[in-house]
Amino acid sequence: MQLPLETEALVVHAPGADFEMTPIVIQDLRPDEILVNMKYSGVCHTDFWLQQGALGPLMKFPAIAGHEGAGIVRAIGSEVKDKSLQVGDCVLLSFSACGECSYCRDDQFSRCTDFPSLNLTGIRRSDGTTPAKLADGRPVRSQFFGQSSFSRISAVHEHCVVKCPYPEDMAIYSPMGCGYQTGAGTILNIMKPKADQTVAVFGAGSVGFAAIMTAATVPARHIIAIDIVEQKLALAKELGATHTINSAKIQGSVVNEINKVTGGNGVDFAIDTTGVASVIEKMLDCLAYGGTAASVGAPPRGDNISVNVGAFFAGKKTWISVAEGDSHPPEFIPKLIDLHKQGKFPVEKISKVYPVADLKKAISDMKDGTVIKPILEF
Ligand SMILES: [Zn+2]
Ligand SMILES: [Zn+2]
Q: Residue limits of the Enoyl reductase (ER) domain (predicted)?
């Protein structure tokens, strides 16, 4: 493997600037890294955070986004622990973790105490360098979530890599490492609803759909999808939602509508994928006695909500935050692939592949609800 290596990536040159296909040079491959020829990458809202500068001081520019990569192994660092991994293997990429803290040692990568610095800065933890530079020699942040998958080739951290035995399904599986495991893991790893229980999902994006589809595998008694785009709600009903609520169209409150469905009891489980403070308040208000609410969409720092603490206490309610579905990707992603193979997690119905040159179209289709999960092909 000859390094440095010239390639191209969608570089964001400054906060708020467009993603721009730009020549880059991969400088070197560390012993704990894997060089991946990227074939596909899902597009997730966190990529827009990076692009808009919303990660604040964590992220510097120029930077490469992308954290739902899928590709083919091109070279393997000398100390990579998974000795079964070979050049030519198909891999799905997920988030990075330190591998050393008490959570990581317990195979709970999503709780890694170093999660923000490892995933949101795009630099190596060991020495703050970046694997890639621009042609003029300036470093470019190129390990976003350990992978920066909006690149034709990327040097990724070994903890991101999950082998995929189905190269033919690499495109539709690429979002497993973030959006899909976040929604599915919240249901299967944390909430574990029983057949007589009820679930409400606020926001019908890819995370919400993954939650709806996995709740339908139980199947939970009521699965209520809440969104403001009619087209997405219609698809949610097709893929497992028993009820849908268009919160932009109803008279009165979402909580009232949920109470109508549940006979006034509220829901046993509620998930907020939006991160919007007013939606989180509704999520807490719609819980049944003993119910659990999970925030999985990150709210802006500094936002506050109002909670009736007396009712919350008396109702024995729980509110938790969940990152990446509390999943350990090397174990959980293969489980999701199995579910898909059984026809119980039909991710092909919510995604669409776009050539990377059509990125703008992919983004506008995602924003207006035409497609739930755009996947870029490199
Ligand atoms: Zn850790
Ligand atoms: Zn994501």
A: 16-376
Q: Give the residue from 172, 189, 145 showing the smallest Cα distance to 332.
A: 189
Q: Number of folded domains in the chain? A: 2
Same domain, 239 and 134: no
Helix axes 206-215, 230-238, angle to 10 degrees: 30
The ligand minimizing its distance to the Cα of 157 is 1
CATH number at residue 120: 3.90.180.10
CATH of the domain at 244: 3.40.50.720
Q: How far is the CA of 150 from the centre of ligand 2 (A)?
A: 13
Distance 102 CA to ligand 1 centre (A): 7
Question: Is the same domain home to 111 and 219?
Answer: no
Would 339 be classed as within a structural domain?
no
**Are both 315 and 359 inside the same structural domain?**
no
Q: Look at residue 372 and tell me if it is in a domain.
A: yes
Centroid of ligand 1 to alpha carbon of 146 (angstroms): 13
- Give a yes or no: residue 111 inside a domain: yes
Ligand nearest to the CA of 176: 2
Residue 289 alpha carbon to ligand 2 centre in Å: 32
- Examine the domain organization and report whether 231 and 207 are in the same domain: yes
Could you tell me if 282 and 354 lie in one domain? no
Considering the domain architecture, whether residues 203 and 124 belong to the same structural domain is answered as: no
Q: What does the alpha-carbon distance between residue 136 and residue 250 come to, in Å, rounded to a whole number? A: 55
Task: Give residue 302 CA to ligand 2 midpoint distance, Å.
Answer: 21
Q: Give SS3 for 104.
A: helix
Triad 216, 42, 94: Cα angle to 5°: 80
C-alpha 94 to ligand 1 mean position (Å): 14
Q: What is the pLDDT along the chain (378 residues), one digit of tens a residue?
A: 789 999 999 999 999 999 999 999 999 999 999 999 999 999 999 999 999 999 999 999 999 999 999 999 999 999 999 999 999 999 999 999 999 999 999 999 999 999 999 999 999 999 999 999 999 999 999 999 999 999 999 999 999 999 999 999 999 999 999 999 999 999 999 999 999 999 999 999 999 999 999 999 999 999 999 999 999 999 999 999 999 999 999 998 999 999 999 999 999 999 999 999 999 999 999 999 999 999 999 998 899 999 999 999 999 999 999 999 999 999 999 999 999 999 999 999 999 999 999 999 999 999 999 999 999 999
Q: What is the DSSP string of 310-333?
A: HHHHHTT-EEEE-SGGG--HHHHH
CA of 158 to the centre of ligand 2 (A): 18
Q: How many Å lie between the centroid of ligand 2 and the Cα of residue 237? A: 24
